[in-house]
Design brief:
By secondary structure, this protein is α+β, with helices and mostly antiparallel strands. The chain folds into two domains: 190 residues, Fructose-1,6-Bisphosphatase, subunit A, domain 1 (Fructose-1,6-Bisphosphatase, Chain A, domain 1, 2-Layer Sandwich); 121 residues, D-Maltodextrin-Binding Protein, domain 2, CATH 3.40.190. Helix 8 packs parallel to helix 9. The longest helix has 23 residues. The two termini are 38 Å apart. The model has no long low-confidence stretch (mean pLDDT 95). Bound molecules: adenosine-2'-5'-diphosphate (A2P) and magnesium ion (MG). The site of magnesium ion (MG) has 3 residues, from strand 2. The site of magnesium ion has 3 residues, from strand 2.
Length: 328
């Protein structure tokens, strides 16, 4: 890759940082009352706002680039949802975004409405880990650029992952460019990025793995069976969202397992692209449960892959071999 992608990187970092800070503001306003009512509106306000600001920034800088985002504005346009749209407008106004009229907000969100593969496109999950967001735990704003089927740039905003040496609530912004390494910087302020690397653990008995909090997203019973077979005795670290990729990339866990809970589910590209590049550029390895590379040239789903296995590289082939003996 001879291109430096400097403009893409700066645009993506600025947009993800802005969106992550908006999500953090909305998350901090979630109260017990909201949770008791199982009110999903905070997450909806936050993810539409996040998608709006990121797509607006990408469209201004790269008007030709399609964006495959998780959300679209269709349901916001009906009169029954006008009040809801107004709440998003109010949030964006409070955040200092220029001209967030209801029409503009819908237009910005819909810049993220591409669904099919093209030679160069962005993919965006404005809030990955919705359930973690509502529990006030981990979530991520995830953005990646894919060129000719290869992830060339990935940015992950993790407002609840602490940056070493900073206030624990500072949050971390991660990024990677293909061939140029993986980096972390505090979410809240400009600072020289710090290079991050995976662990060098080569013995399962010393390893730690992470997995989803939700057993409906990744089978806890299979990971437990596998851990027993491989002699992994440390308790798994459970966290929501692509924050798991960040945890492996910065050497706080050696493995991330995402084991299918039902055969028909296909992973979505926006749930993985940024995280995959982060781990690979930190020296790790990512495949599906059969050891096949994830294919980002198949549309918005990873059609040809099942589950996801992430390791520091040293532990990968043995883990895949052991998985082969389990039934999914
Ligand atoms: N059966 C499933 N298997 C794997 N992932 C799933 C499943 N159902 C939903 N997801 C996705 O898991 C992601 C969150 O994962 P995690 O547990 O790592 O936080 C969400 O993006 C969610 O997608 P969606 O938002 O389309 O429901
Ligand atoms: Mg997601």
């Amino acid at each position: 890759m001879t291109e430096t992608l400097e403009q893409e990187l700066q645009t993506a970092l600025l947009a993800v940082r802005q969106a992550a800070l908006i999500c953090r503001t909305v998350q901090s306003a979630i109260t017990d009352e909201v949770l008791e009512k199982k009110d999903k509106s905070p997450v909806t306000i936050a993810d539409f706002s996040s998608q709006a600001v990121i797509c607006r920034a990408l469209h201004n800088a790269f008007p030709e680039d399609p964006i495959i985002g998780e959300e679209d504005a269709a349901e916001l346009k009906g009169p029954e949802n006008r009040e809801f749209l107004e709440k998003i407008v109010a949030e964006l106004t409070a955040d200092g975004i220029q001209d967030p009229t209801p029409e503009n907000v819908c237009t910005w969100i819909d810049y993220g409405g591409a669904k099919t593969y093209s030679d160069r496109f962005w993919t965006l999950d404005p809030i990955d880990g919705t359930k973690g967001f509502l529990r006030k735990e981990q979530y991520a704003v995830s953005l990646a650029l894919i060129v000719e089927g290869k992830i060339v740039l990935g940015v992950l905003g993790c407002p609840n992952l602490p940056f070493p040496g900073e206030n624990p609530t500072a949050g971390t912004l991660y990024y990677a460019i293909a061939g140029q390494g993986a980096y972390a910087l505090p979410l809240v302020r400009e600072q020289e990025p710090k290079r991050i690397r995976v662990t060098t653990t080569s013995d399962f008995s010393e390893s730690r793995f992470c997995e989803s909090v939700e057993s409906g997203h990744s089978s806890h019973s299979h990971s437990q069976q596998l851990a027993e077979r491989l002699g992994i005795s440390k308790e798994p670290r459970r966290l929501d969202s692509q924050a798991k990729y960040a945890v492996v990339a910065q050497g706080e866990a050696d493995i991330y397992m995402r084991l299918p809970t039902r055969p028909g589910y296909r992973e979505k590209i926006w749930d993985h692209a940024a995280g995959v590049l982060l781990v690979e550029e930190a020296g790790g390895e990512v495949t599906d449960i059969h050891g096949n590379p994830l294919q980002f040239d198949q549309g918005y789903e990873l059609k040809n892959n099942q589950g996801v296995i992430v390791t520091n590289g040293h532990l990968h082939s043995l883990l895949i071999q052991s998985l082969d003996e389990l039934e999914f």
